[in-house]
Write the structure tokens for this entry.
Amino acid sequence: MTRLNAHDLHRIKAEYSPRINFQDKKYLMLCGGTGCHSTGSLEVKQALLQEIESRKLHDRVHVIETGCNGFCANGPILVLQPDDIFYQKLKPEDIPELIEQQIVQGTPVERLLYKDPQTKKIIPVQHDIPFFAHQKPWALRNKGYIDPEVIEEYIARDGYQGAVKALLEMDSGQIIEEVKKSFIRGRGGAGFPAYIKWQGGADAQSEIKYVVCNGDEGDPGAFMDRSIMEADPHAVLEGMLIAAKAIGAHYGYIYCRTEYPLAIRRLYIAIDQAKERGLLGENILGSGFDFHLQIYQGAGAFVCGEGTALQHSIEGKRGMPRPRPPRSTEKGLFNRPTLLNNVETFANIPQIIVNGGDWFSSVGTDKSKGTKVFALSGDIRNIGLVEVPMGTTLQKIIFDIGGGIPKKKEFKAVQLGGPSGGCIPNTYLDLPVDFDAITQANAIMGSGAMIVMDEATCMVDMSHYFMDFTHDESCGKCPPCREGTERLLALLAKIKEGRGEQGDLEKLEDLSHYIMETSLCGLGQSAPMPILSSLKYFREEFEAHIAEKRCPAKRCPDLLDFIVDEEKCTNCGVCYKNCPVGAISWKKKEPAWIDREKCIKCMTCIDKCKFDAIY
């Protein structure tokens, strides 16, 4: 394969322009992210290829498997370009009709189009769908437009132009100055200004330096970084290459958890393609600059998302954090200066260099610039990947983009920052989403997990869930985290099971503050945040569990006794048919009856009943 220079990149861009701009034929852009793979997109792809082959339509239509489309709740997803027609929840048996009606006759298949759940209006065009209309995809700019396994398609959308500019036209100081102008803050959780890290790496004196990308995305409900690596791996590679030039590093690692096989496969493909074309390795683009990059697969330890623990893992040691200082930019991987940023941060860098730091900082709030990618999940209609300008309100994200709460239930809270974050109540729906505003509301931005909860969520149960996760993932190195999380978990279990006593809430608060103040790393320092935020905003729920032995949300089985309300029961028998232990008796045209001795309190009957007839 010929090594590329700057002229070659322009030639490739011109050559692939008809494909990228959908000019020469119809394109079926099929989502090939992990979410759509899990719902059958590969089978849909096979059906598409077979139908096109049997009808000899190769000259009219082409199938492209893209990365994650973003609207994960509606997969498998296919977008017909250049018409931007959005098809959802496809099955292989839908394909003959779709090809005949849409491709041959030119008429959309109405039953497969998006229908707004509230207005019941069919919206055929992707960018008119509210989920997409309110977003600003910068980090996700290539999702749905390119085949992530074809480097030429990335190049055709200005890929590697940032590298050309950084390697051939700029010195280290100029690169860092643009990053400083952008005021991009690390998207991995802490929100530390990126340029300070980069300047520290550049100032460090060492013959060997490293650039490391943190792709160890372990928060429950988080899939932002995974989706970027799957949909646009070259953006991450290019961002790391620019960072390497900025600090004078010639070696790099992408740390990606092994539970992300598709992301890892596409990263390997991207690295091999970049090496073959001289965009990684030696004398890149004829600049005289060398950069060698490899992937390290993590074993799935949540604590390895912490920078020093991640570096220990790459070194072959147990993933445990170490005290700081020294900072990683002084003494990091293999005791050498190391620049560590996360996937989303690196994915933004090429555009910052091409368009300038002022372009990036023109969007956002005073201290939080640019856009942020969130993984929207939980009790919400539109589960998926969302990218919005910093400062966008929770109201807009949850209701305008997310579509609101299903099943006619009320919004109760949103968990921001995963197990290290906090629960924000409905009184804060006008909160602008940026680093500082979220911190003031007793939560953190984190990597971007946003879990929505409806009125049926018990905050004691939710606190217990996150503490159970954090306790399991503690590395055990420092006693405050190792012992403290176990004590917190035991206290929450005690309250949840109806054994709570007066004074337990004060114990929770005191122990939480102690753990946060004395733990070694960010895992322990932030582990109690879901508890503290829930106690601040939902204290009455905890008190009801203790004083009244009652769960207001009716989710804690030990505090529940299941009874059928005969006046509300419609005699449908759904509860009887779904009870896993046969604890429900029912006859046609008669209300159901629950044998409370047999009942295991699994909540299935309550979840299945559409008439709230079980209490």
Notes: The chain has a mean pLDDT of 94. The radius of gyration is 26 Å. The chain is about 40% helix and 15% strand.
